[in-house]
Design goal:
Chain A has about 160 residues and is mainly α. The first copy, chain A, is built from eight helices and three strands; from the N terminus they run αααβααββααα. In chain A, a hairpin with a 7-residue loop joins strand 2 and strand 3. Chain A binds a DNA duplex (30 and 30 nucleotides) through helix 2 and helix 5.
Chain lengths: ~160, ~160
DNA sequence: ACCATTTATATAACTCGTTATATAAATTCA
DNA sequence: TGAATTTATATAACGAGTTATATAAATGGT
């Protein structure tokens, strides 16, 4: 196995490493879903899952709950609408806003996935995280919260001040 | 703070969540480097660091040690060469291979960063990961190794078999 | 010596994130 | 009431990853 420099650099290249691992996990998840005959990209299903859980959401709300930029959400929503899984309609009270909801096909896909696909994916990823020292999900949550609370640039300044 | 559906779904959306966090950490790292007057994208410096550490590498070797695809490495190497930080030359023994090395400017940037910038970045990220339950880097290593050892699709099959 | 196969890299095309900006609609203020 | 400002979304352009494929060079087999 070739030398892994991103791993070698530890904290310095954590961002690159997390992205890389995220892409690997997404690619693996993709394979499982394809085996079930589902061609949905891994990055798309939080959109369907969010609406299934919360009911119709606006474009901006979807961006917020998924944690990506609004133009990014707009694009993916457009793709899912084109695939016939999502439906867009202008909000009654505010014509700027667009309401995003599941189509029948979208709801069917979510129901099928909830029953037949996602539990397997979830169990496989859980299996991968077994035997770790401490809860990986809790650590991710701590890091996410910590980053929002005090960005790296502040942490660097504080670190210099304590030295 | 709006509801975070990617977090809610835990293991199911781990891939998306890791990518998202990776992008956040990279963006934060970017800000620190910009404060030092360095416009290098966060994803570029593993290239410089790898060559600084190992001496000149081929395109394929760089892709391997950084953990990305060969066309991805080709593109970034081209950009860094255009920025005057890397130099490409055909290998003596094999005209297919291209040797990638640091230019004077590239070496200067790495030396400066190693002295003035990267320790601060490293300390800030370490600070972010303080107070976690268990070593986050070790957990990442375990997950990476585990994924290579047995991809998710195998883990899903095994999980079904044990039930 | 020649042909088939393999290897290394470049290019094309795609996805999915970003920021910047444009456009339309709603709100606020004087 | 009208203009300025704010808000919601779409589009453009970019970066950085991917897969597929093309091209060139090296290797191996007969």
């Amino acid at each position: 196995m070739p030398h892994d420099i991103v791993k070698d650099f530890g904290y310095l290249t954590l961002g690159t490493r997390l992205r890389r691992l995220g892409e690997m996990v997404q690619a693996n998840t993709q394979l499982i879903m394809q085996q079930h005959g589902i061609d949905l990209p891994a990055a798309h299903y939080p959109f369907l899952a969010a609406i299934d859980r919360n009911g119709p959401l606006t474009v901006g709300e979807l961006a917020d709950v998924i944690g990506i930029s609004q133009p990014g959400a707009t694009r993916t929503i457009g793709q899912l609408a084109e695939a016939g899984l999502l439906d867009l309609s202008v909000s009654d009270g505010d014509q700027r806003r667009k309401q995003v909801s599941l189509t029948k096909a979208g709801q069917d896909l979510v129901d099928y996935s909830t029953r037949e696909v996602w539990p397997g994916v979830e169990a496989a990823v859980r299996n991968l995280c077994t035997d770790l020292d401490g809860s990986f999900l809790d650590q991710l949550a701590s890091i996410e919260d910590g980053l929002k609370l005090r960005p790296l640039i502040e942490r660097m300044k504080e670190d210099k001040e304590t030295k």
